[in-house]
């Protein structure tokens, strides 16, 4: 083995001297600007494709929109108030709905994508020359008709031309330079700044969203994401050098951050701007072309994004598709390179089925029943304040809201008056008159959530007004495990309290259910909080508070199991929409070192190959 080491060392030494003479540097490729799609020798890797004029703009009733028809006119006019009526009862393929509600999938179940689009631009062309036909006379191939499956699909699917147009743009490499990505991100920031009043007005019309809650979720958090991406985009895009073996010590090994291509973002009604624009930030930062599909249930917000946002972003790389479940189903028939969906688990399964036909990777954020454990040793009023704020924020229509409180009977008796006091302080004696309390999105969801008032014993609230779509902040005690409110996500302003004997039974109950999007634990004893953290599984966790972990751009946001998979926010958004491409660049010379892996094989070559590629074990590490 010593001789093997001497041989490798001598070869390495000779290789180093030769590389020194050739003035070869061992610096990985830069990923800045246009260098991201340059091959060795400076030749472009990506064929420059002439983009045909895209039919992206239609009349005012168009189902998809770009800025081509807007002529970059920034719309500053006030949105007209659109009353919500019984038409809102229509189900949405992109809205978040409870898995137990009847008819949830009526708009999209069974309408999975049809024939997959094939990317063979040469279908129907001659496959060989005369010489090839003479060499293989026994095979007779039928002539393929000029109309390929792709062309037939394009003529039948209303969104095929849109997707093809964005893909043609992406193939030119237009979205890859860092400066282009920054320009688009800054344009998105301008959209937020110049249309702040209209955005907040749209949210208020759709859901009676208070100005405070609207600004925090639709303006502030999205701006933070944009600024965080602009501050770090240069470092995110750089090639990442990786550890090398002895055999590749003089080579260049790195991970390149490539965009996926054309991505689709489908968002729900509860936070139309937040849950649409934050993924959009990551998709743009990663260098993709993007189609967004907002929920039709939040009508004013959808209208604003469809009519105004395209005038800020590049029409060649961005589009908005509007409509209900039928347009969403037809849109999913097309081949995308990545899909991010936020909504209910049943609709998430439909999206995943459609994506599977094209082997398209997906991120699903699906929600679930988020437990909130309250220990007997805690500041009950502080815990009640934080629970009430998180639960009744946006009228309970938050995927991360605590779905139920789990505690002992003794803790319930001490917590209940604190919950009552917090509700009174936040929303007054009559929350319906409070400007800080929202409403249900439509009549259908009002009826669904109101049905849960039949469960358990109402101790706080319980009042409703169907005409106003108002459900008072409500707390229910003495609920049973088998009742519907404990079997499905509430997604409304009703907080049930489920009692157990002790902490261990609480953990056992939490683990007996599907893994949620978040787990919360309140206690003055850190051992209790850590016990809940260590013994449960969820998309996220927050100790002694609720929702606040999602405000950090440095933390990933996403689910696990039934609550979804994949994550985004901050750099995690960039990584989600980025393909990490493993690369190794080697020298064409110094073939002597490669002979150890060529036939004819012998034991000496095997020993040398193993010794130069071996990964050796290190000492054990300890967690601090």
Protein described:
- This protein is α/β, with parallel strands linked by helices.
- It has two domains: 25-53 and 158-366 and 566-586, Aldehyde Dehydrogenase, Chain A, domain 1 (3-Layer(aba) Sandwich); 371-558, Aldehyde Dehydrogenase, Chain A, domain 2, CATH 3.40.309.10.
- The chain is 35% helix and 13% strand.
- The protein contains 18 helices and 21 strands.
- It has helices at 2-21, 130-135, 149-156, 160-171, 178-194, 196-207, 211-237, 274-285, 299-307, 325-332, 345-356, 380-392, 409-427, 443-450, 503-512, 526-535, 571-576, 603-613; strands at residues 64-65, 240-241, 252-259, 262-266, 289-293, 318-321, 338-342, 362-365, 371-374, 404-407, 457-460, 464-465, 470-471, 474-477, 494-499, 518-522, 540-543, 557-558, 564-565, 567-568, 578-585.
- A seven-stranded mixed β-sheet has the order 1-6-5-4-7-8-19, sandwiched between helices. Strands 11-14-15-10-9-16-17 form a seven-stranded mixed β-sheet, with helices on both faces.
- Helix 6 (196-207) runs antiparallel to helix 9 (299-307).
- The longest helix has 27 residues, at 211-237.
- The chain is globular.
- Mean pLDDT is 83; it is low at 1-5, 10-62 and 66-147.
